[in-house]
Amino acid sequence: MAIILAYTFRTFPYPEELRKEVDSLFIFGKLKEDVQRFSKLIFEQKPTMIIGVASTHSGHSLFEPKAVNRFNRTGIVIKEGEEELLLNVPDLQSTTFRVSRKPSSTFCNYTMYRIKSFLEREKLTIPFAFTHVKREDIKRLKEILLQDNFTRAREFLSSTG
Fold first, then answer.
1. Parallel, antiparallel, or unpaired for β 24-28 and 4-9?
2. Domain count, the chain
């Protein structure tokens, strides 16, 4: 049985709608403290997948293929960390979702990078994705995530050039 552990941010305007689509929802308020709390939650709940969710500002729902070791354009997330970490991307062919072509350096990226780094350090092979979503697409998230064809971003990026 799939257990979807999701997280979002206190500024996300639709937490109740998101809560209906996932098994557990964590809301970030303070980045550094909450990354530690969320990491403990991963061990406690043993999810089969993790999804980060924020609202989109582009007009399209997007999955992020990678997190970069950059915060607020000039800072870094983890000193001496890898330049980028690849996330999982579901098959989006029959959806209105797209894959982002340009990584961000905002708090969304900060959490993606920290969580993916934690998963790799702890050798946890839990699929981890992040989406910037339109309100009307929230109800499609579970269906998309429960597909058997979750893939690594590298595979997606190599197939699209």
1. parallel
2. 1
Query: Tell me, what CATH number does 119's domain have?
Result: 3.40.630.20
103-124: pLDDT as tens digits: 887 899 999 999 999 999 999 9
CA 47, 122, 104, 153 dihedral sign is: negative
Q: Is 141 helix (H, G, I), strand (E, B) or coil?
A: helix
Which range marks the domain in which residue 127 is found?
A: 4-160
pTM over 0.85: yes
Which residue in this structure is represented by tokens 């890898």?
A: 82
How many C-beta atoms surround the C-beta of residue 72 within 10 A?
A: 11
Which residues, other chains included, contact 155 with Cβ-Cβ below 8 Å and sequence gap of 6+? none
State how beta strands 49-55 and 128-133 pair.
parallel
Q: Of 129, 123, 122, which is closest to residue 146 (Cα–Cα)?
A: 129
